[in-house]
Amino acid sequence: MHLSQLKKGGVICRRGNDARLVNGTESTYALAVEAIEKGLPLAAAIEARGLGDAVDLEALAAQGALDCPVRHPDPAHMFLTGTGLTHLGSASTRDAMHADEKGMSDSMKMFKMGIEGGKPEKGKEGVQPEWFYKGTGTCAVAPGDPLHSPDCALDGGEEPEIAGFYVVGADGQPYRLGFSLANEFSDHVTERINYLFLAHSKLRPASFGPELLVGDLPRDIRGTSRILREGKAVWEKPFLSGEDNMSHSIANLEYHHFKYGLFRQPGDLHVHMFGTATLSFADGVSCGEGDVWEISAPDFGLPLRNPHGREKKGFAAVKAL
Q1: C-alpha angle 312-202-233 in degrees, rounded to nearest 5
Q2: Taking the complete model, does pTM exceed 0.85, yes or no?
Q3: Are 223 and 172 in contact (CB under 8 A)?
Q4: β-strand partners of 18
Q5: Which three-class secondary structure state does DSSP give residue 147?
Q6: pLDDT band at 93 (very low <50, low <70, confident <90, very high)
Q7: Cα–Cα dist 242/248, whole Å
Q8: Helical H segments across the chain, by residue range
């Protein structure tokens, strides 16, 4: 089962090639809250409402009618976060960005920690991963909409990832709705200057969807990341995800995010990205305005496409009151 959210309101449920509107449903978030309150799985809540008119999902995507698969009605209560160095091969990619470092870099040390302790036995705590913050719901960009680099950026590049979506119940219990494709847009030139600039490099928008996969994450995900320029691919590379290709389990990454009470506030929506090992930047590719990133994987339905943009307005200096 896959879910999509319409920008104008409405939720689409796709099973196989059959895509239909969920009856009486304005948003995936509202549907999830109702399911939590009634103690139902998300799929059962959809069954209870029933499915209505059939829609052409590909046509809606082409028209720019689809939003991120889940949004909070108040962007301040939607948090975009992620983990790095979680995939096999991710450490070598990161090391290539800091080639002047002597000995074993902190990136490689953290990667080795994940290899040794990132997949603990059920019920046990594993090693904590690298963690980063991207922003609130104001930074969540719909499929098809531009990913804008801020005026201060030195670069803007894609990171093809899988994201988990979570709503926190009234009792502080996080509930996972499902997973989607994500473009964890970052500034790798800024990061390469000094690893301590990683936090700065992540304060960028990100895009998700167009479809939410409801249920467990496949263990072996095989996708493709492309850069399109005037409709032609100028760079293309496969990417792997799923626990078979990761140094951490999904459960361990979830545990180390939600162990903080800050992230268990009732009603909040969390979108957490699980990392990648594939970057066009690592291959020396630079993207410019008008280039389009395309991230696809068969398990997630429609591909995620976003053009590159850049904010034109500068920062206004702080004024004293």
Answers
A1: 70
A2: yes
A3: no
A4: 15
A5: strand
A6: low
A7: 10
A8: 28-38, 42-49, 57-62, 90-96, 106-117, 188-193, 198-201, 250-258
